[in-house]
Amino acid sequence: MIRRTAPPNLMVVFGASGDLAKRKLLPALFHLHQQRLLHKGFVVFGYARTRMTDEEFRTQIHEALVEHLVQEQGVAFDEGLWADFSQRLFYQSGPYDDRSAFETLAQRIAELDARFPTQGNHIFYLATPPNVFEPITALLAEVGLANSPCGGWTRLIVEKPFGHDLESAQKLNDHLLRLFREEQIYRIDHYLGKETVQNILVFRFGNGIFEPIWNRNYVDHVQITVAESLGVGSRGGYYDKSGAIRDMVQNHMMQLVALTAMEPPVAYDAESVRNQKVNVLRSIRPIDPLEVNKWVVRAQYSAGVAGGREIPGYLETEGIPPDSTTETYVAWKLEIDNWRWNGVPFYIRTGKALPVKVTEINIMFRRPPLMYFNSRETRSQRIHNSLTLRIQPDESIILRFDAKRPGPQLDVEQVSMDFSYSRAFGDASISDAYERLLLDAMLGDSTLFIRRDETELAWDRVTNVLEGWAVQEEIMRRRGKTFTLPQYPAGTWGPLESDDLLARDGHQWHEPVLNEGR
Fold first, then answer.
1. Residue 179 annotated as lining a ligand binding site
2. Active site residues
3. What is the model's pTM?
4. Of 178, 498, 469, nearest to 325 (Cα)?
5. 470 is in an annotated binding site
6. Is 100 annotated as a binding residue?
């Protein structure tokens, strides 16, 4: 195995005093440092509105590492390596729309380039609310930081949400591409950094036994579930402006669909892989706005118990308007109009306040043409053979098939074979997604990042649904009726309408079973 070590670079983290930086980014960077994967010329420069000195910033980051890396993840903390890492941490407070503050930033970067062997390589990470993406990047260009003045490379990492709909995503892309080249822009989706998501392609294209049956001839339908057991909590104000389809479907779920359905790439490189994902997104059948209810179900959770916690109803949550029609649950029947998947529905669902937190892909295979064992004693003739790719938690792959139960009768039962990451590779085998993505960005590998056309195609299909919902609500208003969403009690798997979406095709949702096969 080739050990990948990052080249020297200076990373500016905008929003460095925020939750994402403290909970994910800085712990990931320090863990890379502990694994000796960062160059001695690596520097972190935090920028945020919060006033503090370099030393105060270092103290805050030390506390964050202890909380999120040591206490939550159980990672051993090397104080000697921290002493070295902390001397590479610097900070500047300032607004995101003030040129003089960015001129000071450029001056400090130049000083650090001279002090450390960064070779003039710069990464700018936008860990900020999206409303300041444009002013930050515009000022970076104005003060000469869109390209390194020292002859090194410059890269820009942009967090989600990338736009609010197709029009806003196109506008943001147009803005960024006036200042940076496409190859400089790394649109991040942390799901793509997960080991189990990366393994989808290895599982499909690295094994000769699965890809030949990965098509309409053998697959009956596909189910993808991204479930969260928590409600919106204190994020109510933010969440009510986005909803489940913007928060989860446009990014994470569309990426899972693309990786599951894509054709083999010409090579395992950024352009080849992303070309095939784009082809899948382009093949997703658009929805007639007047028929949106035929294809998509949306709902809100009511009060209940999920994940062992009592959860108030969405409309009773602080910060949520009592007449809100923002969805906390979405189920969508996708049709992919290409040769491989024609006639194979992809059912995707995501929601808040569901029974467990789990992400999995279920490939449901066609039944045999003749049911030889269709007798009163058999119990599994109506159950599909299936393959589950469990993304999180209990990262695993589970194959289910029928077998004869020992005994004098012909009693058939579904059994399973499973692969567990923790059993095969140890409990520490699943690295943090941000570690992989940050290292890839430093190395200039954009395979696991989102290209412009991917973002816009995903938004195109999602905006199609949003427009259908708007038409639906307008029709209700014209009829003088109040529009309300279906409800599902917290701790259940969604509204009855979601079950009906599959039942119309003779299917039912696969309910995840955690620790299956252990």
1. no
2. 252
3. 0.94
4. 469
5. no
6. no
